[in-house]
C-alpha cells in the first residue's frame, strides 16, 4: 500500500499534476491526529473515539485521539486553527466551542468561520428538560404556565455557566417569555443529584445523562430540545411540538480541518466519515449515548454552521449572557 502511494506521488510529480490533487491521491500516508478539546470521559471523547476507531479501519492509517482540554475547549480548538492545513491535524468541534463560545467569551483566539474548513457533521445530542416527579408541571405547557404564575421562582440547573445546557435554558426561557433562575454546577453529575433530591426544580442536560433516571421513575422528562425526537427517547416530545414552534437547540458535533486545507483532502475525509457513520455498529453506539447521526457534505455542514453561528451571536448579544 505504501509503495503504491509513493508511486502515485512520483507519477503526479512527473506529469505536473496539481499539487493539491497529488497530495489528495496519496492522503493519508501517515497517522492523523484528531484533537478533542476536552478531557477524556465526556461526551465529546465518546463521539471522537468511536469515529477515530472506525476511520482508522477505513483509511488504513491510524487516527490518533489527542485530548487537549482547557478554557472550555478553546485551547485545543485554537491549536488546530493554527496547525498546518494538510489534513493530518483535525478537530472534533461542537456547538459550545464553535457555535456559542466565540460570542460568549471575550477572546477565544479563533474565528469559527474563517479559521476552519468544515469536513463533516457527525450528529447531534439534544438536551432534555426534566423535573422531579413532585414538581406540579407535567408538560412544557404546564411548566410555562407555572413559571408565568410564579415569576422568578422556578430555577433550573445546568452543567455550568456558559455550557450548552445553560444556553439552552436561557433560550427556552426567552422563547417562552418566562423568567427562570439559573443554578450553575460543576458538571452534570452534581446538577442531577440536586434535582433528584428536589433541591432544584428543572434540569436541562444531555438526554443520555438523564435517561436512566427517567426510566427508573426518579425524574420526569417534559421534552427534548432538538427539532426531531431523540432516537434514545422516542416517547419524549420535543419542545417545538409542545407549543414553542421552531424551537431547536442541539449539541452538534463535527470534524474540522484548519482553513486552507485542500478541498480534495476535505472531500476524502468527508467520504470516510460518512462511510463510518453508515456502519450499523456506529449508529447503535451513538444511539445508546443519546446521539442522532446526521451526516452531510462539507458544503451543507458549512451552511449549517453559518446559521448556528449567526443564531447564537444574535441571541447572546441580545440577552447579554456571560460565561462567568
The chain-level mean pLDDT equals 90
Note the main sheet.
10 strands, mixed
Order of helical and strand elements: HHEHEHEHEHEHEHEHEEHHEH
Query: Helix- and strand-based class?
Result: alpha/beta
Please tell me about this protein's structure.
This protein is α/β, with parallel strands linked by helices. The protein has 2 domains: 2-125 and 251-319, 3-Layer(aba) Sandwich (D-Maltodextrin-Binding Protein, domain 2); 126-242, 3-Layer(aba) Sandwich (D-Maltodextrin-Binding Protein, domain 2). Helix content is 44%, strand content 19%. The chain has helices at residues 2-14, 19-26, 43-59, 74-81, 95-104, 140-149, 164-176, 188-196, 207-215, 263-277, 280-288, 298-319; strands at 32-36, 63-67, 89-94, 116-131, 155-158, 181-184, 202-206, 220-224, 250-258, 292-293. Strands 1, 2, 3, 4, 5, 6, 7, 8, 9 and 10 form a 10-stranded mixed β-sheet that branches. Strand 1, helix 3 (43-59) and strand 2 form a beta-alpha-beta unit. The longest helix is centred in the last third of the chain and has 22 residues, at 298-319. The protein is globular and about 65 Å long. The N and C termini lie far apart (52 Å). The relative contact order is 0.17. The mean pLDDT is 90.
Amino acid at each position: 500500500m505504501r509503495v503504491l502511494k509513493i508511486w502515485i506521488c512520483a507519477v503526479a510529480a512527473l506529469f505536473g499534476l496539481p499539487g493539491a490533487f497529488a497530495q489528495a491521491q496519496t492522503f493519508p500516508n501517515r497517522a492523523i491526529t484528531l484533537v478533542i478539546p476536552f478531557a477524556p470521559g465526556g461526551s465529546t471523547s465518546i463521539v471522537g473515539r468511536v469515529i477515530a476507531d472506525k476511520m482508522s479501519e477505513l483509511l488504513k492509517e491510524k487516527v490518533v485521539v489527542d485530548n487537549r482540554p482547557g478554557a472550555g475547549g478553546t485551547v485545543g480548538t485554537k491549536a488546530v486553527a493554527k496547525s498546518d492545513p494538510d489534513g493530518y491535524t483535525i478537530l472534533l468541534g461542537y456547538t459550545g466551542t464553535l457555535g456559542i463560545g466565540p460570542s460568549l467569551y471575550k477572546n477565544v483566539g479563533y474565528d469559527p468561520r474563517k479559521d476552519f474548513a468544515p469536513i463533516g457533521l457527525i450528529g447531534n445530542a439534544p438536551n432534555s428538560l426534566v423535573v422531579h416527579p413532585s414538581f406540579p408541571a407535567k408538560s412544557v405547557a404546564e411548566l410555562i404556565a407555572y413559571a408565568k404564575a410564579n415569576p422568578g421562582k422556578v430555577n433550573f440547573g445546568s452543567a455550568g455557566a456558559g455550557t450548552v445546557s445553560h444556553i439552552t435554558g436561557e433560550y427556552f426561557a426567552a422563547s417562552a417569555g418566562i423568567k427562570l433562575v439559573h443554578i450553575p454546577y460543576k458538571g452534570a453529575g452534581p446538577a442531577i443529584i440536586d434535582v433528584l433530591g428536589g433541591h432544584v426544580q428543572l434540569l436541562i442536560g444531555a438526554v443520555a445523562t438523564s435517561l436512566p433516571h427517567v426510566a427508573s421513575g426518579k425524574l420526569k422528562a417534559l421534552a427534548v430540545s432538538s427539532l426531531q425526537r431523540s432516537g434514545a427517547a422516542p416517547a419524549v416530545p420535543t419542545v417545538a411540538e409542545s407549543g414553542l414552534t421552531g424551537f431547536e437547540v442541539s449539541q452538534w458535533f463535527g470534524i474540522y480541518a484548519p482553513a486552507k486545507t485542500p478541498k480534495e483532502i476535505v472531500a476524502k475525509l468527508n467520504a470516510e466519515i460518512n462511510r463510518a457513520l453508515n456502519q450499523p455498529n456506529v449508529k447503535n453506539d451513538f444511539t445508546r449515548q443519546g446521539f442522532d447521526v446526521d451526516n452531510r457534505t462539507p458544503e451543507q455542514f458549512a451552511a449549517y454552521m453559518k446559521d448556528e453561528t449567526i443564531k447564537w451571536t444574535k441571541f447572546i448579544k441580545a440577552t447579554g449572557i456571560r460565561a462567568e
